[in-house]
Amino acid sequence: MKKKPEDYSHIKGWGIDADPENEPTYPIKKYTGDDHKRLSYAKPPQQPSKVEILHSNERPGLTSVFGTSSPPSGLSGLIRRHAFTYSEGNWGHWLSLILADRINVWEGIASDLMHGYIPNIFAERGWNAELKYNRKGAIQKVVTGVLVATVAAGLLYRLTRKKKKTHWL
Amino acid sequence: MIAMNFRGPFRVRADRNKPDPVIEHPEDAIVRVTRSCICGSDLHLYHGLVPDTRVGTTFGHEFTGEVVEVGSSVKNLKVGDHVLVPFNIACGVCPFCKQELYGNCHESNPEATAVGGIFGYSHTAGGFDGGQAEYVRVPFADVGPMVIPPDLDLDDAVLLTDVVPTGYQAAEMGGIKEGDTVVVFGAGPVGIMAAKCAWLFGAGRVIIIDQLDYRLEFAQRFAQCEAYNFRSLSDPVLFLKKTTDYFGADVCIDAVGCEAAGSTLQTITGRKTLLQAGSATALHWAINSVKKGGIVSIVGVYGPTGNLIPIGNVVNKGITIRANQASVKRLLPKLIEHIRAGRLNPKEIITHRVPLEEVSDAYHIFSRKLDNCIKTILIPPSARA
Questions:
Q1: Which residue among A42, A68, A93 places its CB closest to the CB of B24?
Q2: Given B161, B291, B348, B364, which residue has the most CB atoms within 10 angstroms?
């Protein structure tokens, strides 16, 4: 709650932007009435579309400008196209996009390999920095990983062996 | 050119073969980047929490650079101008831009209607490549970019593209009145800046909450505020109620967004299994810690669909929630004046200056909060010559 007035002189500029008009019920925007003009404004020229651009089904067509980074492709592209048949507030839209993102990661690795590039996943994950600034943590992680993998492999081996034995008997 | 290249969650690299951007629209400019930052919002993408973040994308929505080419309709910029580029891509003529809601432009993002175009973000923000590169395409170049005044430090300038205006707008949306108690959740760069700016609106007490001691110490020093680690509090909401005479804070600012720690349930449903669009712990705490009739201001980034938020409490308590992406262009003149007068000193939050080629390590350091990292600036090779 409010405290009694104190000496704020040590804080440079204290209260300089205090605005009694800035009430919670007064939206911070310069009200011009333009909300209601809607489509009557002079739209900027249209950027030509040279690659596939997906657009929300909550609006007609494309915006005046758009980015052309990473157009949809492959299986993830198919899923993304499907996602855009749902509106933005629909779970089908977002969950499909998340699924597409995960598939896209594997497509990225495949694309790297197809172009003769072997991704250095250790470096891409920034593990050089982990070794530099958190060597102990990095070693702990590696040791834990190796231990878990060894135990899992051991258990798997024992299970398979047991199964084989039962089958043979 | 060299550019940051997203390869999937927790994997990025500096790609040397990214094609240079070209003019695609008469109102475009091409900018040679001199500074770009890694933002906390980039981490949401890096961690795989924001849908439609495609492999191959270049991040970076905070950058400055030199204009090297302009489209046929660009009038306000010329080749050679050194500009700071707000993270919002705004047309300047749609009904929302006319009201200075530049973060809500209707002509820069075909893929969603909730938000306008943003450089280097998920495709839900328009699919534009960002500034963590040597060159970047800047649409609507006459609207967003601002020629950097000669007396403005380049490090201050790059922080004016997002972090300073977002922190400032967080405080502004809080409708802070003289003597108000303001609680900021999150001591990242934006939270620290929000705490600092709260004083400019006449706050009487500013409290910041985080889980990392080094960030809290930094915030305490930089923003002259009280700082508490929620890991050392059994219940942050109860603590905040007690310290505000059991009434609650006048204003609560959520500067965390979808990656908040502190609740196992939220972490499992929001961050690990993505059953909701990120963890809403900070928002819970903000809504529950504010007084009745208080104001919650949200600038933390959330994923674009359902979250398990206590909306019942919002209704019962008559809380006003104000939230938006910062309207950078609207705030720039005022913020530059504050920097000139020494009221704000943004460049003090920069702790790391990294060559663009080492972008993988830079992301990892920021993501894992290594080496006391607060804010990282990436410098492309062409800007180091």
A1: A68
A2: B161
